[in-house]
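Risk register update: the risk of archive-format incompatibility is retired. Evidence:
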Amino acid sequence: MIEPNQPATVHPSRRFLPVLVLLFAGSGCAALIYEVVWLQLLQLVIGSTAVSLAVLLGTFMGGMCLGSIALPRVVPARRHPLRVYALVELGIGLLGIAVLPAMPYVGRFYAAGAGHGLREILLRGAVCAACLLPPTLLMGASLPAIARWTQAAPQGVSWLGFFYGGNIAGAVLGSLLAGFYLLRVYDVTTATLAAAALNATVALAGLGLAAMSQHAAATAGPPPEDALRPPGAWPVYVAIALSGLSALGAEVVWTRLLSLMLGATVYTFSIILAVFLLGLGIGSSAGSWLARGKVGPRAALGWCQAALAAAVAYAAFMLARSLPYWHLDQTLATHPWLVFRFDFLRCLCAILPATCLWGASFPLALAAAARHGQDSGRLVGRVYAANTVGAILGAVGFSLLLIPALGTQHSQRLLIGLAVVAACFALAEVSRRAVLLAAPAAVAAVLAWYVPAVPWGVVGYGRQLPIRTDQGDLLYLGEGMNASIAVSELLDTRYFHVSGKIEASSDSQDMRLERMLGHIPAVLHPKPRSVLVVGCGAGVTAGSLVPHPEVERIVICEIESLVPNTAALFFGEENYNVVDDPRTELVYDDARHYIITTQEKFDIITSDPMHPWVRGAASLYSIEYFQHCREHLNPGGLITQWVPLYETSLEAVQSEIATFMAVFPHGTIWSNDTEGVGYDIVLLAQAEPTSIDVAAMQKRLDRDDHQLVRESLKQVSFPSAIALLATYAGQGPDLAPWLEDAQINQDRNMRLEYLAGMALNSSIEDEIFQDMLKYRRWPKSLFVASDALEGALKAAMNPPEKPSAR
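Archived output:
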């Protein structure tokens, strides 16, 4: 316990403390910009599966943990804290900039050595460590460095809490600045330089303050550390570690649930992170104030953790019974900034109380573990390290183990239990009365019992749940490591839901699209032996390859292990039981990661529909991704790519098409419209210019060994080769004027996910389609046909009069 009446041995200049809080806010802002940029860049190298994200996050936080412990042990206390802090910030900026030119070499090194199983996980860890450990070690060292400007006394410890709160306030700004401005308007290079400029500004200010002040270290040698620890300090470290575990575990659970309700865009994740950090910052300031009060900090920490049980239960109730049904007027929903403010409010109402309590716990733990005369740097390093170790365990444990094994409902019950256990550790030395410890445990048990399950409609329809008049009947619900899925049935139509949206269905238009994605390249390729299908979904895209007699190998790359078995169980008829077909190989991986690391080449690469507005999906629409696909096509191989015209904008569609055509300049477009009304399209290309012999294609379909192919096409209104080819909607050279100002989607300028995320609630699919059709010309070099077949094809391509209503 702090002894407030003992004389101080170190007298820092208190007038600089408010300025240092501002500087530390700048540090936090830069750190969050780096985190967003580095995680985006490294996911492109090692993949975006839950395992990859766990390795990334564990390395990032692990570096900060090691840095917080190492600095007080490596740097003597006699060094001027402000000068040390300034040099740390300068080092972060230099290393942050160095990551950018190093990343291409890291990518090539990883692709050359990537394998499978434990070896690959170890390689991912090595790559992350090489890129992230140097700068994150310095990030973790910044708080212990500046902590030495204060004393291990009530006033000093409270300022440590304010430093922490200021750092988090800056982190809130950094997360919003990166997600809503720097990466939306510019690119990762500009974002990195902005963060480095912040580091440089903070470093210069720190050096200036150091020159204006003196640091007087204690002249006498410090007593042994054990003598400076308050009696029984270890329960405080356990309590703050459990607090970090529950905080990051809750962030994982709540991010999963909130992204279902709000739509899994980059903006949603920025909002969730900003609200979480905002609560931590508010709570840290409140905890710093409480640390000065009459209530003992250890008791305050204990009751703070006990209150978390109620706060987590409240959040669970809000996420299950209230927030899913909040609805923004449809006339306003097309204005993205109004939607963002509404989503921010929803997040705020659900998770702010708990995050404030977690934020308050850190300065209270500092005060509870402090003793007069103790090295403030070592104090902060220990408490911060304990909290961070718990946070790493929480993030990794809940994402990889607990949510897949227990589900989000039981995971939230476990969070309540963790809060009570942390409270018991903190209060154990304060009061020996068992009743004081039993009371919060009993209340928590009741709260945990009544934690509601999230309605299946949230998994099924997400943000559209409030306007669904009939959700249908639930057939299956599962929560996996990477996604939550559901299967429902309504009016004889079966729907496959993934993470808050309908991914596929047995509806005729959905079936038509997915069979186009497989059949078009398969009937155009003279002998398609090997096929790669990116994503499984309901299996219809992959299943459309099953009837083709030439196909010998179908590789389905799926990120979520629950998906294929569910598709086999509920959509076996529609997908020709592709999951159980002996030619099929299932690969559970991020598809981009698989394509980069595999040595195999394919005759066809196709993709199940994946919405570009989903965070991370835009990496499957980048110019680098299409270049990788081109490199993995056999000579004469073909690729198809889905492009939605709904829930998007004209700019986003133009970006997707222009990026594809930049790699495949002779690419073509095929429409899945409804009587001339646009809905979505399929992009088709090969490395060489495509030539389609119409008569030969029909002759092939008429062969006996293609009977199942003919039947599959007839089921989706393609009775002949002419009917299938009549979906032609344009080609790259003709669309050049339309795509002139389109933004190319690149790995270092992932503009597409920001464009698409802005237009999530729009419904202008037919406007986009009709605008694109203005540039359609008869492709003389594409179709090889007799005059009669050419005339029939031209007649089929001319749609009937556009209906007045869909």
